[in-house]
Amino acid sequence: MERCKENEEVWGQRHSWAERHAEQNLFGQLEKLDISSIHPRNYGLAVSVLPRTFAVISWLNKGKLREINLSGLLVPPDVISALAFASGSRLRCIEVSSMLDTHVPTSRPWTSLICVRGVCELDLSCCSALINNSTNISEMQNLRSLRLDNNLLIRDYNVELMGFLSRTKRLIHLSIKGCTRLKVSILTKAKAQNPDLNLLELDVRDALMDVPLSAIRVAFPTLLKLNNRCTELGTSRIQ
């Protein structure tokens, strides 16, 4: 990344930003940004420098990012907002699993700050930093894949999740594995309210099983995989 920045500076000295062609801008060609699990040793450096670095990347990229993976990073949620806002409707995938909490206060949910309605894949596994920040997933009606694994802060009858499941028409993959305080019956209740909720893959391992798996199979006859195992329908499709 440092070498790319050096090349940008060299080109900037030879050509004006307006005159340079898009192919000369290495960051301008990025469609996927994956810098997951990079842990700076200095906490203060992580909080102060990384957000500014991502802001520069957003500017150089000029809104071409389609996939963002910041899993395991020690950065405030507003960083996601900056990157996603710059990409706008082009953004399709956000992965921030195991994102570490920087304890930086914010006045609004991070999803209310960005253009997330076009996002198709969202991974918030092991991500209490964002779940605790009142993540508003109900607005993300284009989601096809949602992972909320191992989030202990999602409890009992979650109104936000229920609202999303009761309205979504595109979700086909859902994982709430390890959400030990979330009742699985939320899925059957959502299906009763939303006939368009036709899941193909579902993982509820180690969630709060207040209904049997047989009830899940009856509610979602379209399932190809349940708890990472092929259903009869899924096996027949493979054959």
Helix and strand content put the structural class at alpha/beta
Oligomer: single chain
- Beta-strand proportion: 5-15%
| Radius of gyration, in angstroms, nearest whole number | 20 Å
Order of helices and strands: HEHEHEEHEHEHEHEEH
Helix content: 25-40%
Average pLDDT, all residues: 75
Q: Which ranges are low-confidence, i.e. pLDDT below 50, for 5 or more consecutive residues?
A: 41-45, 102-108, 111-115
Which strand order do you get reading across the main beta sheet? 1-2-3-4-5-6-7-8-9
C-alpha termini separation: 45 Å
Shape descriptor? elongated
Count of helix runs = 8
* Major sheet: 9 strands, mixed
Extended strand count: 9
Q: In terms of topology, how is this protein built?
A:
Blueprint lengths: L1 H13 L17 E3 L8 H19 L5 E3 L8 H10 L5 E3 L25 E3 L4 H4 L13 E3 L11 H7 L7 E3 L9 H9 L7 E3 L9 H7 L5 E2 L2 E2 L1 H7 L1
Parallel strand pairs: 1-2, 2-3, 3-4, 4-5, 5-6, 6-7, 7-8
Antiparallel strand pairs: 8-9
Helix pairs in contact: 2-3
